[in-house]
Specification:
Length: about 100
């Protein structure tokens, strides 16, 4: 089993308000999930359930922690189970950071 990667390519700062769109968040999610799961970006289908990409509870918790750092909001470690696709997760997060 691969250990989870250390984030290196991505800023841990919250995006500016004009950058908090669902599309921006989705792009970030696709890149991060691909890196976490050690697969190519093009293999990530934003409308497919996370489990189809191979996401498990450990990688989901890692992603939630990175989202907290990047967006500057509290993110539950169960967020990927509450929003089972990257599309739905990006939409939820975009709405949350706007509030």
């Amino acid at each position: 089993m691969n250990s989870l990667p250390t984030p290196t390519r991505f800023s841990t700062h919250a995006p500016d308000s004009h950058e908090k769109s669902a599309d921006t968040i989705l792009h970030w999610l696709v890149e991060r999930v691909a890196e976490i799961l050690d697969i190519a970006d093009h293999e990530i289908d934003p409308q497919a359930p996370h489990a189809e990409h191979g996401m498990d509870s450990m990688s989901a918790a890692f992603l939630a922690a990175e989202l907290e750092d990047w967006l500057g909001i509290s993110v539950s470690s169960s967020i990927t189970w509450d929003h089972p696709t990257l599309d739905s997760l990006a939409q939820y997060l975009a709405n949350t950071v706007r509030d």
